[in-house]
Design a protein that fits this description.
By secondary structure, the chain is α/β, with parallel strands linked by helices. Helix content is 54%, strand content 13%. Helix 4 runs antiparallel to helix 5 (116-124) and helix 4 (98-108) crosses helix 7.
Length: 214
């Protein structure tokens, strides 16, 4: 598999969607075949599951049901879209991947006795990111950005304590996987942050494909 998978992670409003879009534009400008994806979503079925997960009306959804819906959306997107793209050698930039499940449903929801490693591996068929960019911002800043003065979606409406647990979950992942996960300050200037992310992506592509990748 010569394709390269770069994922963006972080709490709500951390800036990952903006930075993932900027990276896609930068890589395409350099002549790379780049596929932009988001989670949950990325395929017709996965987008329908996204609607269920983020609908504020679904207040009765249990944490286990939520977890399994995220994994179901991921499994469909990986099989239908992501894996074929990697197989043909494309660069895939994904706004969220399995680290979000570990942080949100594991740390955030406090699910215990759940083997997230096995579930994530099942949904992804063992595919792991070559680079994960984790943008870290304070919870109050992230929620203010994400909601933009509105009420927010089902996840954004969770109390600040939930999002604090999610943030700690991401920090734990970053500390455990320093080789894959690069944590950056999401409060930095957009252009400065984008330049560092582009450099990290170029390094990941070169490491995967060899020095001729650029």
């Amino acid at each position: 598999m010569t394709g390269v998978l770069i994922t963006f992670e972080g709490i709500e409003g951390c800036g990952k969607s903006t930075q993932s879009r900027l990276l896609v534009e930068s890589l395409r400008a350099k002549g790379h075949e780049v596929l932009a994806l988001r989670e949950p979503g990325g395929s017709t079925i996965a987008e329908k599951i996204r609607g269920l997960l983020l609908d504020p009306a679904n207040t009765a959804m249990t944490p286990i049901a939520e977890l399994l819906l995220y994994e179901a959306a991921r499994a469909q997107m990986v099989a239908e879209i992501l894996k074929p793209a990697l197989d043909r050698g494309a660069i895939v930039v994904c706004d969220r991947f399995y680290d979000s499940t570990t942080a949100y449903q594991g740390a955030g929801r406090g699910l215990r006795n759940v083997d997230f490693t096995t579930l994530n591996r099942l949904a992804t068929t063992g595919i792991a990111p070559d680079l994960t960019v984790l943008l870290d911002v304070p919870v109050e800043v992230g929620l203010r950005r994400a909601k933009g003065g509105g009420a927010g979606d089902r996840i954004e409406r969770e109390p600040a304590e939930f999002h604090e647990r999610v943030r700690k979950g991401f920090l734990t992942i970053a500390a455990a996987e320093r080789g894959r996960v690069r944590m950056l300050d999401g409060l930095r200037a957009q252009d400065e942050l984008g330049a560092e992310i582009a450099a990290l992506a170029a390094e990941a592509i070169e490491n995967k494909r060899g020095t001729g990748a650029r």
